[in-house]
Specification:
Largest sheet: none
Radius of gyration: 22 Å
Number of domains: 2
Number of helices: 8
Strand content: under 5%
Distance between the termini: 41 Å
């Protein structure tokens, strides 16, 4: 959008095609930067150095609408809130996921929960931001009921 505004604006103001092309190029760079920032790829440099980051694990495990993985991250954060994970909490989470997701809930989901529980910290802000961006409002309301 900025590429057109800057390109046409430069052409109208200066009446020189060279400056219009330059305005178009600068506008294209602005558009690309905004798109990258919107997608969370603004060059943060996250690479192999953050391979043990729990949120990187979460991103790799979750697909576009993978509600169980998102709930696993939140469940693990709640379970670890008091500093210790109780067996009753773990049983409740297992039963809840078994009842809600049926046969789709399997050992892979339990491994994901274990990964979150073993992590030193769970980046709650990033997880909640990701849920807000990925989920529809209706699914978000259902998430509150959990």
């Amino acid at each position: 959008m900025y590429k057109w505004i800057l390109g046409i604006g430069a052409l109208i103001l200066t009446r020189k095609i060279g400056l219009a092309i330059l305005g178009f190029a600068i506008g294209s760079l602005i558009d690309q930067y905004q798109q990258a920032a919107k997608n969370g790829q603004s060059g943060s440099g996250a690479g192999a150095a953050n391979a043990q980051d729990p949120f990187d694990f979460y991103r790799r495990q979750s697909s576009m609408y993978d509600l169980p993985t998102m709930l696993m991250a939140l469940s693990a954060a709640v379970m670890k809130a008091d500093g210790k994970v109780l067996r009753t909490e773990l049983d409740y989470v297992k039963n809840f996921f078994s009842m809600q997701f049926g046969k789709q809930f399997n050992a892979t989901h339990l491994q994901t929960l274990k990964q979150f529980l073993d992590a030193p910290s769970i980046p709650l802000q990033d997880t909640c931001h990701d849920i807000r961006n990925r989920m529809t409002q209706e699914v978000g309301v259902q998430l509150v009921h959990y």
